[in-house]
Design goal:
The chain is about 10% helix and about 35% strand. By secondary structure, it is mostly beta strands.
Length: about 625
């Protein structure tokens, strides 16, 4: 559905509420001089408020004294950073509040360079705090009888050193809520955040293992760019961990956040704990996350990761899921992944005492189904991390379609103490696609019977793992006893034997060529380690020539003795030439003759030739 249509529908809904209720408009204009006292500004014929703090105090006054709702705060100018830009704590406002620029096509910019407080705070006072005057931005109020609703739209935030929106109350722990003061809806539409570090900080004042997800509902449609990790803001209840851009505990969250050109290298981008999560469409490009997960979920119920385009990012872990709270909940991401790189060095290996792992996806202590997965790897990259790491979990892993997500990863699946069911996953790219220990692996029959994508090595490198084949409801155990010899050939016991070296087999090739009745004979002997013998005879000339050639793996030595039969006796000449050649070692039998051995085999022939030459010289000398 078109986003503009949804937003228009939302405005119609808001206007209907405005008509049926006591509506109050409060205007804020930083470009004019202050012409009022206290917070008597912004409403009807009063001068516009010249600060957001005054506008926040006027909203509290209208809510407490007049039960006004809805309350619209219109921002009519840019806020350039020379003055604070905080509405203060609006916990006392029991109303539907909307904060916006009136012109959606030309939103105003709020610069937080000179602001040391969040743009908007909803913080419940401690019990010991007494009720302040109604003009105080930190005053408390009687229990709200209606649900608080806060809508922020058509604004740009830049240069914020503090978080933008902070909600810190005693959250609902009952499955059936009874206290409306603990119920808040926060919706952020058409909002841009740049050169800042913290967008949402939502966490409970009360400690509990369970929070009612629906008590605090968040819908965020935000474009964030040039974000950085905060060097100063600390995560709640921590003395050394920094605050990530989105830190949310105990809420129902649906996001549609676009992130680009940012460096979030000190924290995760999302830290989500004890939440219900449904991801929307996101475009994440040109960012550095380093060794920190892009999304970090702790004890949360994930309904869907969402549809994501993930381009040109440096990241170790895309998503980290710790103690998933719902059994077999479908997680259906559609992801286009391209030009992903991994950091060459990690300066930290955990966040809030949660250990990091070298994997693109991490799943620890949970039960879940990853279904209808579609990963489109648009470009190849090489990485030393695993694609999916799981520990102490029960997982179903299904691909609806895939251009293999496993290209470039060290391993496709690494599992420790898990039950893993794999369906429609092509693991043929990897020699050992499943590694780990003490796990049960269920492979679908189609994969096992498809010789193009299945290899026996699939069963290697997962120690003490059991494998099963399943087709519909039929499951049978796979006998993998053969894998020990297949996967560890060096460890396979073999009988002890003693090998006696044997000489290489030599081949003699003799060719005789005859061309006329005077018959010239040529004999060639070649010593090579093969087992082929051939003899060829033909007629050529009246000259007799004998050639012996010795071939080794590194050099060829040729010795030629030529005698010319004429009426005059001449001394035969002997020529020896050696030239280097490059060949591959050829071996037969269990012993290969070395070059030195083969060259020494030619020495008797050389000595006989020398003796013959000396004998002829002596005979000639005697008869002279």
């Amino acid at each position: 559905m078109n986003k503009n249509f949804l937003f228009t529908l939302f405005l119609v809904f808001v206007n209907v509420i405005f008509v049926a209720s006591q509506r109050v408009n409060i205007s804020v204009d930083y470009s004019i001089n202050k012409g009022y006292s206290n917070s008597q500004c912004g409403v009807d014929t009063e001068p516009a408020c010249t600060s957001l703090e005054d506008a926040g105090n006027r909203a509290i006054l209208e809510s407490v004294e007049n039960n006004a709702t809805p309350i619209l705060i219109y921002i009519l100018s840019n806020i350039n950073g020379s003055a604070p830009a905080s509405l203060g704590n609006l916990y006392s406002v029991c109303a539907f509040i909307q904060i916006l620029s009136p012109n959606a096509s030309n939103p105003f910019t709020i610069d937080g360079s000179n602001t040391d407080q969040p743009f908007l705070t909803i913080e419940e006072p401690s019990e010991q705090q007494t009720t302040s005057s109604t003009s105080s931005s930190s005053s408390s109020s009687p229990t709200c009888l209606i649900q608080r609703k806060i809508y922020i739209s058509n604004l740009k935030f830049t240069n914020w050193k503090q978080t933008l929106i902070k909600i810190h109350i005693n959250q609902e722990t009952k499955e059936t809520p009874t206290d409306q003061s603990k119920s808040i809806i926060l919706q952020v539409f058409r909002t841009e955040v740049s050169y800042s570090s913290s967008i949402l900080l939502i966490y409970p004042k009360n400690q509990n293992e369970y929070y009612n997800y629906n008590s605090i509902a968040i819908l965020a449609m935000i474009t964030a760019k040039y974000m950085t990790s905060s060097p100063n803001l600390l995560a709640p209840n921590s003395i050394d961990e920094l605050l990530p851009p989105l830190y949310i505990v105990g809420a129902a969250v649906q996001d549609q956040i676009y992130l680009e050109n940012s460096n979030i290298s000190l924290t995760p981008f999302f830290y989500i704990e004890k939440c219900l999560w449904k991801g929307g469409i996101r475009n994440i490009s040109n960012n550095i996350f380093s060794c920190n997960p892009y999304m970090f979920f702790v004890k949360s119920h994930m309904f869907s990761i969402g549809m994501i385009s993930f381009f040109n990012n440096e990241v170790m872990t895309y998503i980290y899921i710790l103690e998933q709270q719902a059994d077999f909940v479908a997680i259906t991401p559609v992801a286009d992944l391209a030009n992903i790189s991994t950091p060459t060095y990690c300066h930290k290996n955990k966040y809030l005492n949660h250990q990091y792992y070298n994997s693109f996806t991490v799943f620890i202590r949970g039960n879940s189904t990853f279904s209808d997965l579609y990963f489109n790897m648009l470009s190849y990259y090489k990485s030393n991390i695993d694609f999916f790491y799981a520990q102490d979990s029960n997982i179903n892993f299904e691909f609806a379609a895939t251009y293999p997500p496993n290209r470039g990863y060290a391993n496709l699946f690494k599992i420790i103490n898990c039950t893993l069911r794999i369906y429609n996953v092509d693991m043929s790219v990897y020699q050992f696609p499943i590694v780990g220990s003490n796990s049960s692996v269920y492979l679908d029959s189609y994969y096992l019977n498809n010789t193009l994508i299945f290899k026996n090595e699939t069963f290697c490198n997962c120690s003490d793992c059991l494998y099963y084949e399943y087709l519909n409801s039929n499951i049978k155990r796979i006998d993998t006893s053969f894998r020990y010899s297949l996967c560890n050939p060096k460890l396979t016991p073999t009988p002890s034997t003693t090998t006696t070296p044997t000489p290489s087999t030599t081949t003699t090739s003799t060719s005789t060529t005859i061309t006329d009745p005077t018959a010239t004979t040529t004999t060639t002997t070649t010593l090579i380690p093969t087992s082929t013998t051939s003899t060829t005879t033909s007629t050529t000339s009246t000259t007799t020539t004998t050639t012996t050639t010795i071939i080794t793996t590194t050099a060829a030595t040729t010795m030629t003795a030529t005698t010319a039969a004429t009426t005059t006796t001449s001394i035969p000449t002997t020529s020896i030439t050696t030239s280097d050649i490059t060949t591959s070692p050829i071996q037969t039998g269990s012993h290969s003759t070395s070059s030195a051995e083969k060259i020494s085999m030619a020495e008797p022939t050389s000595k006989r030739t020398s003796i013959m030459v000396l004998f002829i010289v002596v005979i000639v000398f005697i008869f002279m």
